[in-house]
Structure prediction request, 559 residues.
Amino acid sequence: MLRDITIGQYYPVDSVIHRLDPRTKIIGTIVYIIALFLVKNLLGFGIAIIALAALISLSKVPFRYIVRGLKTIVIILLFTVLLNMFLTKGDPLIHFWIFTITRQGIYTAGFMGLRLILLIIGSSLMTLTTTPIQLTDGIESLLRPLKKIKVPAHDIAMMMSIALRFIPILLEETDKIMKAQMARGADFESGNLLQRAKSMVPILVPLFISAFRRADELATAMEARCYRGDVGRTRMKELHYGRRDAVAYLILLLFVGGLYASRYLPAVSQLLHMIL
Amino acid sequence: MDMVRSEGLMHEYAVRGDDGEVTQRIRALDHVDLSVQAGEFIAVLGHNGSGKSTFAKHVNALLFPDGGTLWVDGMDTKEEDRVWEIRQKAGMVFQNPDNQIIASVVEEDVAFGPENLGVEPTKIRTDVEDSLRAVNMLDYRSHSPNKLSGGQKQRVAIAGVLAMKPKCIVLDEPTAMLDPSGRQEVMRTIQRLNKEDNITILHITHYMEEAVQADRVVVMDHGKVVLNGTPREVFSQVETIKEIGLDVPQMTELAYRLRQEGLEVPADILTVEEMVDALCRLK
Prediction:
């Protein structure tokens, strides 16, 4: 049952996006997320949607597969949209009982919802096209300049990759412990929320003990293989920027420029408003 | 030349009470004198707490002597600045395959050792390929370790050690968590590395059938070396071995019982074939 959880789901196909350097994808995603919050009108969103659609079709990841990632945030999405809709002050459109829906409310709610959806799809496109190892390598490489201010870039990346390695093992172990406790009559399904939470204790205690034991053994094994932090350490797979990364950065620059320009083109967006 | 040599090697564990005070000192290794020739295949037997794993950790410089000296390829393990050199020369494979594989792709894990040693990236790549080929796992290079069987995982762990170009490999009960076919895979790999690449093997095990395949068997009990000799010499001492609480190989056991019944079979029979031979020669 626990095995259904997938973290950092990677969609293995060969595409231009897959072959990009992970650093390009990480920076691109961060810039894209920030840019989304700069968008103030429909024209901006139009640009963002077109750009995202182009990226998705380039990545060869089926659209249906990406949308599945939205399921997990449906509740947050609804919550945000409703709150924005009812709580924004402005010209009232509909009024019933204590609720008032304003024109501005509808706009903000719509924009916020759209922004969230674009944000989730955009960032999941990154995890779908980048293997977890590439991601951690990319993060390590991007954090490296921060080492001068004592940010432990290598350690962070090592922790992430070990965590990724052990997530499936610990999930399997949790499954095993649950079955073992159920075989001895433990009940995880009935009772109220508090009782259910309490019944998790006999799972968590053995899980933690075993995780600590694993950590201890792993540390010994790493030491036995001469691990001593990143001092004098080389990598088998080094990251190299290619020509396609340069092109990607150029496109990113154009995209941000376009979005920024869209803020100052109220006339165009007015026009769009009238059409829509 | 001796690959590993210990003289009066001692190791003590402190047992602490509730207040953190030392209530007892347990001697895990008690004056161990042992030498292992380069290219030898040694099996170390002993039940839990006999000190065999402690000895293994000393060879890899994961533990340091409390008394006596241990030389690995001529290097004293007490010399702190040579620790990394010792660990590279004497690689170690542990019992639980899951807890010694670091990366989530097979070839990345094999590369972990050479990466730590600061080997050139292109050289690492060829070393990794060679090591994976040596354990017959090259086809799985881009797989996730989670999807491999126990025997395959253990072979990846061996490849991880091989990639560091060791002269000696210490295996601490590498087959204890494997099923019979996995156990066979690992034993065959170890045998081949010993015979073809002339790598010294220190194989710590519970299984008598595995010990039989070694050049020499060392039996440990309470931190001391009790028996030391060829499998034939060691296992013919059925009474001493049983006293320690260990078993002898099935056929040796059978020969022992037949001799007690007055049948004239040799005491040092190890395999079924030898037993068949000996029985046919009777009368």
Summary: The mean pLDDT of chain B is 90.
